Amino acid sequence: xxxxxEDRQKAIRSVQAMFExxxxxxxxxxxxxxxxxxFDREVMNNLKIxxxxxxxxxQFELYMSPNFSNLNDVMHGGAAGVIFDMAxxxxxxxxxxPNFWEFMGGxxxxxxxxxxxxxxxxATVLLKSKVVSVGKQMAMxxxxxxxxxxKVTYCTVEHHKVNAPVREEHKxxxxxxxxxxxxxxxxxxxxxxKI
Length: 195
What we know:
Helices cover 32% and strands 27% of the residues. It has 195 residues and is of the alpha+beta class. It has one domain: Hotdog Thioesterase (Thiol Ester Dehydrase, Chain A, Roll). Helix 1 runs antiparallel to helix 2 and helix 2 (34-46) crosses helix 3.
């Protein structure tokens, strides 16, 4: 039986795999997608994994660079949408199984953000995400953006997702995690599915 630390490391590897695959796929995007791609990529390049659990939880630190600011020199509300979209979606990685919330965790149905306090540019924030409910077709993840000392909650999110099959071209982009995932579930490479 795996130890709690082995489970933690496995959950972290599952989350890290999404970042690795995302970066490989982002490099293939058409050049005319550059504006949104760069904002999306900035979030994915700067989220630092702090912790994860096989229960569908993940924590990140993120430096609020000037690229996230509005004219008031605080985090733009739209930036929070992209940040939370990525940070909460990754909480589905540790609960993924074959054909069940695999890479990119489906599509967003709704992303409800409550802004409580302005996030200062130059601050590093703590993002916490936790899968509250996950079924065959729908999932709901809650998240918070807090000060590093956890004394200030800047904003919260409730993210509802709909499961969607992984695109065929995305399946072809492999990362190291794929072998561990396939061994765990007995799929790929001729293995028989355990589900």
